[in-house]
Amino acid sequence: MVKVYEINGVTPVVHPTAYVHPSAVLIGDVIVGPRCYIGPLAALRGDFGRLILEEGANLQDTCVMHGFPGADTVVERDGHIGHGAVLHGCRIGRNALVGMNSVVMDNAVIGADSIVAAMSFVRAGMEVPPRSLVVGTPAKVARELRDDEIKWKTEGTGQYQELAVRSMNTMREVEALTAVEPDRKRVEWESSLPLHLHKNAQA
């Protein structure tokens, strides 16, 4: 069972088409929209501010969402939050990507179709224009993204939307095997052709 906790009379909301891994923790004012994916060990602490994931967004393993009292932390539709990222009181725009182990601070706004590179630190109050590549600590806008880079990001998010469905339909807790089977099969699904590794791949 997913670890869901009410606090001060406020209970998390998870849409029936969203997948939340059983090891994730949802506390209080958390709203997970349709077709979202929440990965293992993610922590969504809506014990101060409201946390919102809009339709098709993903929040991957060990990510943290939190915010100050009265603030909203929002991942807009098709937002993509890579492994280990921290979002605190910020807004991630539609179809934007936050790379692995990045931190996005309070009142920062990441514009639609943008990419925050892995290990970046987006300072409080920073406003990133749409279609931007954001890099560094502290993060700076490096340049505008090309159409093929946005397409690569969108395809990757589509695979996480499929992962939500695959997880609901096929993931189950089992005992580990003690040896590798002959002709061990690989994980395959409808669109399992590998995404080509893009030079800006961050999540």
UniProtKB/TrEMBL annotation:
Signal peptide: none
Gene responsible for this protein: paaY
Protein name in UniProt: Phenylacetic acid degradation protein PaaY
CDD domains: LbH_paaY_like
Classification via NCBIfam families: PaaY
A Pfam family reported for this protein in Swiss-Prot or TrEMBL: Hexapep
InterPro entries linked: Hexapep (IPR001451), PaaY (IPR011974), Transf_Hexapept/Carb_Anhydrase (IPR050484), Trimer_LpxA-like_sf (IPR011004)
Domain of life: Bacteria
